[in-house]
User: What shape does this take?
Amino acid sequence: MLHTPRGGAGSGTATAGSRSMSIGTVLNVLREEFPEVTISKIRFLESEGLVEPQRTPSGYRKFSADDVERLAHVLRMQRDHYLPLKVIKEQLDALERGEAPAAPPAGKPGEGVEEAESAPTAARVGRDELLAAAGIDEGDLAEWESYGLIAPLPDGGYDATAVSVAELVGELGRFGIEPRHLRVMRAAADREAGLVDSVVAPLKVHRNPQTRALAQARAKELAGLTVRLHAALVQTALGVRLP
Assistant: This one.
């Protein structure tokens, strides 16, 4: 629940006091709760009107503590409730008007399953939005799609995960790792997804909607475990420890 018109997610994300912060400082603060957030993601949320930091005369962004809490709220609503940015913005605007926004879905298996099955399961972005968020051009995106790193949805849009993938591929590119080198990661991800799917497949086709909802929750849990195991195995192979 937000405590101030411009932020206040109120669930533990630390801020750097009441002083204004650079975008780099904001990134470090948010990564305590959202390890995969990037500067590109923060800029994208700004471009979508979710936060409006002040600007110095030279054009640098200066974020307040309320701005940081507002960003944390947006990221939390995406992560925990899979709400599209448009819905999150409408909720924030309602709070600024002093109105009580509709409560987000609880996200527990079996609660409101029929409604949840017909609703979007993640935020969607258009092609131009994806390009802007990741800071890439059409040529980059076409190449990444050719290697299976990013794939459009049937309607031509992209889910929120595509933004994260694009940002990560771009970050790896700074170290000379080209998209063609990442095909092995795509193949490994497909194998891991196949393993998870084989475990939850009997639940996904069950007649009971609560059981089908349990399949989705279990797939999410198993996906998290496989990601953690993969990271640990890579660290072991390299003899390093990640922060």
The longest strand covers residues 54-55. The mean pLDDT is 79. The chain has two domains: 23-104, 124-238. The two ends are 30 Å apart (CA to CA).
